[in-house]
Specification:
- This is Putative hydroxyacid oxidase 1 isoform X1.
- Pfam families: FMN_dh (PF01070).
- Its cofactor is FMN.
- By secondary structure, the chain is of the alpha/beta class.
- Helix 1 packs across helix 15.
- It is globular and about 65 Å long.
- The two termini are 33 Å apart.
- The structure holds flavin mononucleotide.
Length: 352
């Protein structure tokens, strides 16, 4: 068979969809879940801006894409947002593969707290020259948050990314009917990821993951642990527990940005969780100027994710004040395209 030419991000998405759907339609639904209208508005927000060319400026210095995030140099302002999916697509070591590429490319990756590769395994394999931040939720059981924080400190993660945009489950709330993933990976719904040491207030029963893993409907103690109602007081508590810089992920309004300033965070990732949480949330790019204005006069760095799909999208976000952009789904498409044998997970009920 002729080699397929995969060049643009659209090609990557198309080929990834074909490969993943062939093996596991639940996985494709899970990756692409997100309210369609919210997602298309996120894309459209980029089209509302034009790039004004500068002419007759040939003598300007050679442009550089280097920048810094929280004081660490990165080769380009493109970083990787957290997702629970690299291990589902690639191999039990999927996150480690992304970490390796991040080090080679001189950029930064955010490790997801609900990865199936636990933070001990991920942290102990980190290449020395990449930059890694650890994402966490403010879990219902604070011992789970502390578990992640202590390991992030131990393995040299440079910051904590606290995701604050997931108070309720996305399955019933936001996803348009066609997009509802029937199942979530069992490690999220039942076990709440190997990183959660406590479920229902008790130590989590350890059991092996792998071939036995199922895709399960929304339920289970792990799910409840993640989707809980946390508050600014919980964030204040977290600040007392660690010296790591804190980046809040999921801020979309000036009001929340001002509260984040008061809370003493170091960074804000303007994000709507890829349209996977609140239907009708403003597109991150549209929210960015308000957030930038709200943090004016502080040292808080502002980043953006959500449907960033081209170089000109990146220019626009940076021109509006973002320090760097983050991408999520394109990384998953890349993993799938390069993968000969996709992970095979089974649904929990036959016939669905
Ligand atoms: C499959 C999948 C899993 C995700 N898991 C997480 C997560 O564990 N924590 C989190 O903060 N965001 C999570 N996200 C949201 C992404 O970090 C990101 O905010 C969003 O996908 C927007 O970026 P994109 O448009 O480039 O995909 C997930 C997104 C996807 C697609």
């Amino acid at each position: 068979m002729a080699e397929e030419i995969v060049k643009t991000l659209n090609d990557f998405e198309m080929v990834a969809k074909r490969k993943i759907c062939h093996e596991n339609r639940w996985l494709w639904n899970y990756i692409s879940a997100g309210d369609e209208k919210t997602r298309s508005e996120m894309r459209a927000a980029f089209q509302k801006y034009w790039l004004q060319p500068n002419v007759l400026t040939a003598r300007v210095a050679v442009p550089s894409t280097w920048t810094t995030v929280l004081g660490q140099p990165i080769r380009m302002p493109i970083c990787i947002s957290p997702t629970s999916a690299p291990t589902l697509i690639d191999s039990p070591d999927g996150d480690a593969l992304v970490a390796k590429v991040v080090a080679e490319r001189g950029t930064l990756m955010v490790y997801s707290s609900v990865s199936k590769m636990n933070i001990e395994k991920f942290g102990s394999k980190l290449p020395p020259n990449g930059i890694y931040w650890a994402q966490t939720y403010l879990f219902r059981d604070k011992r789970n948050t502390l578990h992640l924080v202590r390991h992030a400190e131990k393995y040299g993660f440079k910051a904590l990314v606290v995701t604050v945009d997931s108070p309720i489950d996305f399955g019933s709330n936001s996803v348009s009917v066609d997009d509802v993933p029937d199942y979530l990976p069992e490690h999220v719904t039942e076990d709440g990821s190997p990183n959660l040491a406590f479920l229902d207030g008790k130590p989590r029963e350890k059991r092996p993951y792998g071939e036995t893993e199922l895709w399960t409907p929304f339920s289970g103690p792990g799910y409840k642990e993640i989707f809980c109602v946390s508050t600014w007081e919980d964030l204040a508590w977290l600040k007392t527990q660690t010296k790591l810089p804190i980046v809040l992920k999921g801020i979309l309004t000036a009001k929340a940005a001002k509260l984040a300033v008061k809370a003493g965070v170091d960074g804000i990732l303007v994000s709507s969780h890829g349209g996977r949480q609140l239907v009708g949330a403003p597109p991150p790019l549209a929210a960015l100027p308000d957030v930038i204005e709200a943090v004016k006069g502080t040292n808080i760095e502002v980043y953006l994710d959500g449907e960033v799909r081209s170089g000109s999208d990146i220019f626009k976000a940076i021109a509006l004040g973002a320090r760097a952009v983050f991408i999520a789904r394109p990384i998953l498409w890349g993993l799938a395209v390069n993968q000969h044998q996709l992970m095979k997970l089974k649904p929990s009920r036959s016939g669905d």
